[in-house]
Amino acid sequence: MDDFYAAVDIFAKPHFAKPAREEAQWFTKVYTQKGFPGLLRSCWGAYVAFLDDSCGGRLEVLCSPLGNLPCYKLLTPWGAIFGSDPDILVSMGHLVPAVDFQMVDAQLRFRTLRSPRTALRYLEELPGGCAWQLGDPETVTDIWSPWTFTATPRQLSQPPVQALAEVVRYCVETWANQLGKLLLSLSGGLDSSVVAACLKGTRSDVNTVNLHDGTPASDERVYAHAVMNKCLGSVLTDLQYDMEAVDINISSARMLPRPCGSALAQGVNGARHRLATELNCPAIFTGFGGDGVFCYLTSASPIVDRIRSDGLTAGLSETLTDICTMTGCTVIEGLIHAGLKVLSPNRRRYYSPDLSFLTTDRRTQLAVVPHHPWIEAPRGQLPGKIAHVGMIAEMLNGLDSFARDEALVDIAPLMSQPVVELCLAIPTWMWCRGGVDRIMIRESFQEALPAEIISRTWKGGPDGLAGALFERNREGLSLLFRNSLLVSHGIIDEKSVLARLEDSMPVRAGENLRLLELADAECWARHWSDRGTLSPSAAGKAAAGI
């Protein structure tokens, strides 16, 4: 007999009704009748599902797409061990951490790619939407893919603007109603404002915070207060990013099996995590991922998509005008860029490497590219949709980048599976209609949000914090890189890094962010290398404070 288990948060999709008091039985019935593909068509959330057929000796494991619950796999002589926290696997004596410096190098070159092969040896990740089956050999099958929803425009049962409003509201409300209390990080930008509008009327006690670095460029409080006044009516806490809490000798990704953090994250997350703890909020909601999900493209790709979908119609002229209005380019420039895309071979991969401050050998060899099931588009995909999927894929590393030792979880409701599926089915040229980026989501919430939020097309950010952190820690960064594990393994180019750090001229924004990322990666490598010097039993005692 098959036993079906699902861990953490799993919900029915809007068009699938389920008995309110028979949730576990309903999900089991869905799986029994339709298998994992049926489960993914009917359900969503953050979960890992296990099918255990003790009679047939079969074990299957499915990780939810786009959820914030990772599923790591460790094969041992006596079986497979699954978990969501590498540190627990170490503490229990199952994993002796050893840094895979080849994958560290790959991660630093391709920052946004998330590979099933982690940067800790022997520890692999089951990608979201994939199912693993025990056997000889073991198999991993892609069951859910974003390309399913980009292949052909879906026939929606209602206008896209209405469908989008309903699906986004449903997902935000579903997440919120699981909690008695939450903290919303309200930046004043469009995406977090949409989340705020959806939280109105939920059962959860909603607290809000706005973060800034004290400079006019990052001060979004006037917009955040406007949203609060219209949508929630509660008190908005104003906080500055906490530079004092940033320790460049500690990795913000030390709880993860890959170096995908930045010292900047300590300043951004530290203040709001402390506030959430003070307010006894178990979760922080953000607008994370909205730009990607809502197809914020500023290239000529939508023009090419329209040509290939509709041909030389009047709609093509409209899309050309829209792109020129949105980007500020001339019609001639728009045509040239579109023409180059039409004439060039269709690029089926969405990523490109960042080689800054890496060694020459690594730049020329590019030996390892992190693999991911979404990494290569099927033939015939439109360039705009390849870029759309790429933007969403680039957000995956941010979904679960919170410390498991905190009784706190970060939730990005705009990255929920039903929202992503619907947005991928909407043609790229519809998202820039009228020359306004993300116009579909703006129109979906134009009645629910203040006019100044709907109409604004720019937003501040923590750039000032990045610059201040860098200048404040120049000396410490220099010391860190002079005694670097990543330098000794031929990954970071010590000469170029130190030359930039010792140059008294201000560092460009992109460079200071990159150096803060590399510093975080260095600390990540030291953290796991130090853990690896302990025996499994000693690691467990150290983690338990014994």
TrEMBL record:
Pathway: Amino-acid biosynthesis; L-asparagine biosynthesis; L-asparagine from L-aspartate (L-Gln route): step 1/1. Pfam families: Asn_synthase (PF00733). It comes from the Bacteria. GO terms for biological process: asparagine biosynthetic process. Its EC number is 6.3.5.4. It catalyses: L-aspartate + L-glutamine + ATP + H2O = L-asparagine + L-glutamate + AMP + diphosphate + H(+). Gene3D superfamilies: HUPs (3.40.50.620). It is an enzyme of class 6 (ligase). GO terms for molecular function: asparagine synthase (glutamine-hydrolyzing) activity. InterPro entries: Asn_synthase, ASN_synthetase/amidase, Ntn_hydrolases_N, Rossmann-like_a/b/a_fold. Residues 165-509 form the Asparagine synthetase domain. This is asparagine synthase (glutamine-hydrolyzing).
